[in-house]
Amino acid sequence: MKRTLIAAAALALTAITSAHAATITGLKNTGLGLSGAVDSNYSLSSAVSTTPVITYDSQWPIGPWIANDSTSKWITPTASQGASFDPWSSGTYTYTLTFDLTGYNAASAMFSGRVAADNSVQVKLNNSLIGSATGFTDWTGFGASSGFVAGVNTLDFVVSNWAQNGGNPTGLRVEFGASSVAAVPEPATTAMLLGGLVMVGALARRRKQ
Questions:
Q1: Buried b (16+ CB within 10 A) or exposed e, 39-51
Q2: What span, in angstroms and rounded, lies between the C-alpha atoms of 109 and 184?
Q3: For the chain, which has fewer Cβ within 10 Å, the N-terminal or C-terminal residue?
Q4: 205 with 136, same domain?
Q5: Rounded to an integer, what is the distance from CA 40 to the centroid of its chain?
Q6: Containing H/E element for 15?
Q7: The domain containing residue 203 runs over which residues?
Q8: Are residues 10 and 108 in the same domain?
Q9: Residues 147 and 123 in one domain
Q10: At residue 208, what are phi and psi to the nearest 5 degrees?
Q11: How far is the C-alpha of 90 from the C-alpha of 108, rounded, in Å?
Q12: What are the pLDDT digits (tens) for 145-154?
């Protein structure tokens, strides 16, 4: 009887662990690629361009910005990263990243990260604000543990570049930290879990009789 009870419990445990949490693979840091190339993980909506470009480590204006490294790099609207924008009114640059939670339990998803921008940024998950930051010399954290949807999710980094008549570049830097999401159990896994729990319950009742 004891061995049977252990086997039933193990069956249920196997079913539970088979639906373990995984990292969210679509969360990509900015600048994953060659300097001067388009960052294909992000799209850009602005009056200037629709393709963000990865900056060069040794070129201006990296000096006042957080320095590029092997984890992430700044992305900008044009290949001329020191270009001056928005002389008369503030400009808006929306960098968009999408990730797909098909096959996962969206209600279980979470992630954290950090962001910097020239000059300020609002972070939106599926059009809901989840963070904001101002400045390009330090990081600001952001994250979410709700607001996800089944299927394709959208992260928008809405950068505002404040008006300045000359010497006015703009850019975005994003790094993701921890993330997790639970897989939706397969029908066979669900059946295994229910079967194991039924066996545990039945054996427990027999022991009480």
A1: bebbbbebeeeee
A2: 12
A3: C
A4: no
A5: 15
A6: helix 2-17
A7: 1-19+186-209
A8: no
A9: yes
A10: -80, -20
A11: 38
A12: 999 999 999 9
Q: Is there a single domain that holds both residue 75 and residue 40?
A: yes
Which pLDDT tens digit goes with each residue over 73-108? 999 999 998 999 999 999 999 999 999 999 999 999
Sign of CA dihedral 199, 204, 207, 209: negative
Q: Which amino acid is at 208?
A: K
What's the rounded Cα separation, in Å, for the pair 157 and 128? 11
pTM of the model: 0.82
Q: Are residues 134 and 97 in the same domain?
A: yes
- In contact, 108 and 89? CB cutoff 8 Å: no
> Two tokens at 185?
């159990």
Give how many domains the chain has, as a whole number. Answer: 2
Identify the sign of the CA torsion 163, 169, 175, 181: positive
Residues 36-44, mean pLDDT to the nearest whole number: 97
